[in-house]
Design goal:
- This protein is mainly α.
- The longest helix has 17 residues.
- It is elongated and about 65 Å long.
- It has one domain.
């Protein structure tokens, strides 16, 4: 029996709960893409570090720190998303798994820009 309170119940999930098998495939596939992106990320990271000769610029330091934090976000995202998945918080695991996606999209944009500019 639910306790009687003056507050309305919090909104619950709409529709059926997401399939755990499908979520596991999504997590694995996305993390595989993130893992494959580590090689071009490293090449662009080293090239960017060597290319920015002016370390007196605060913007250059911020750009490099933002770029070099990708492996940390990737590893933390993998650990947290699978922990949430094991705790049956499938939707939260999917959202946490999207954390490295901005770096991947930015890196793909940089690769396309380098190929088209060259």
């Amino acid at each position: 029996m639910l306790p009687v309170t003056p507050f309305p119940p919090p909104p619950g999930p709409v529709g059926p709960p997401p399939s755990r098998r499908r979520a596991a495939w999504e997590l694995g596939l996305a993390q595989g893409v993130y893992l494959l992106f580590l090689l071009p990320w490293f090449v662009l990271g080293v090239g960017g570090t060597m290319g920015l000769a002016s370390w007196e610029s605060d913007l250059a330091v911020l750009i490099l720190l933002a770029w070099w934090i990708y492996p940390v976000v990737f590893v933390a995202g993998v650990a947290v998303s699978w922990s949430l998945f094991a705790g049956r918080l499938v939707t939260a695991a999917r959202w946490v798994n999207l954390a490295p996606a901005p770096w991947v999209l930015l890196g793909l944009g940089l690769i396309v820009w380098i190929l088209l500019a060259g």
